[in-house]
Amino acid sequence: MLDKTLRPLLGVLAALLLVAGCSGGAPTPEPAAADAAPRTVQTGDGPVEVPANPQRIVTLHNYTTTALLDVGVTPVGTIQVSGATMLPQFTRALSGVPTVGQNDQIDYEKIASLQPDLIVGGAVPGIDYGYDKLSAIAPTVMWPMTVPADWKRVSVETAGLVGRTAQIEELRTRYDQRAADLRSRFATGLARTPVALVLGYDDGTFGSNGPESWGGTVLSDIGARFASVSAGEDAAAEYYGYDQLPRLDDAGAILLEGSPEDDRPTAGTQMLVDQPLWRNRPAVRDGKTFVLHNFYPLHYGQALAVLDQLEQEVLPKL
């Protein structure tokens, strides 16, 4: 669950970097990709000359870490990452990968010791990543990022750096086709059922994420309508006390924050559903609450997993 103090969107984007770190030895470098070639990339920091077939890549944002894993490339080092924002097999794949700090607290010496030939991350406004220090170690690409749905663009751009454009395009096409299929097949239920993305906090409040949030982006792609409590939010959650639970009453279905690794709500969300007022909500009485395993999809593989769960567990019941 994201820290309630990080309400602004940019703060939430940064917070996704901070949850659960990994440590250990570096993985075996991936084979060189056949279509990789030297290129100059235009970034917010100016043009960057990217080597052909980079083999030792350090990632400084979950978006770029998962983009590489999506196309079969494991970084040799990564910033601390959140298990809530990637598939369980990706969390396992990173179990032996050294961490190089968190957010703007980067261990430049650790990065240098890994001898990377490319550093790639996301530039969230207001955070100083020490670009000059990073670029002195290896070519550094920091993709501009301002909204949750930037993971789509960052995925494609990052895969292109390592010559895996065909692989990411296959994933993107599969996602777009599946989203279009669900939008068509379940159009009636989606049209009549406003949905809410809901999470609870351990301080006795709850929040709703909007259409431009991580999970909201996927729901928007299948044509979902949003309940009023979520529709008014661009991305990051608004916060309410439990006495405000009637705000959920126009939601025909509620998707709750869960973990990619099990079927339970997160701890703060469990506190929410244990409240007596919770049981009086129409969607709760109608049995239309669902734990969304991948509440924060940040890559195509995880977004496809969201579509799988929606198709199997949610959409047929709308």
UniProtKB/TrEMBL annotation:
<keyword id="KW-0732">Signal</keyword>
<keyword id="KW-0813">Transport</keyword>
<feature type="domain" description="Fe/B12 periplasmic-binding">
    <location>
        <begin position="56"/>
        <end position="318"/>
    </location>
</feature>
<feature type="signal peptide">
    <location>
        <begin position="1"/>
        <end position="25"/>
    </location>
</feature>
<dbReference type="InterPro" id="IPR002491">
    <property type="entry name" value="ABC_transptr_periplasmic_BD"/>
</dbReference>
<dbReference type="Pfam" id="PF01497">
    <property type="entry name" value="Peripla_BP_2"/>
</dbReference>
<dbReference type="InterPro" id="IPR051313">
    <property type="entry name" value="Bact_iron-sidero_bind"/>
</dbReference>
<protein>
    <submittedName>
        <fullName>Iron-siderophore ABC transporter substrate-binding protein</fullName>
    </submittedName>
</protein>
<comment type="similarity">
    <text>Belongs to the bacterial solute-binding protein 8 family.</text>
</comment>
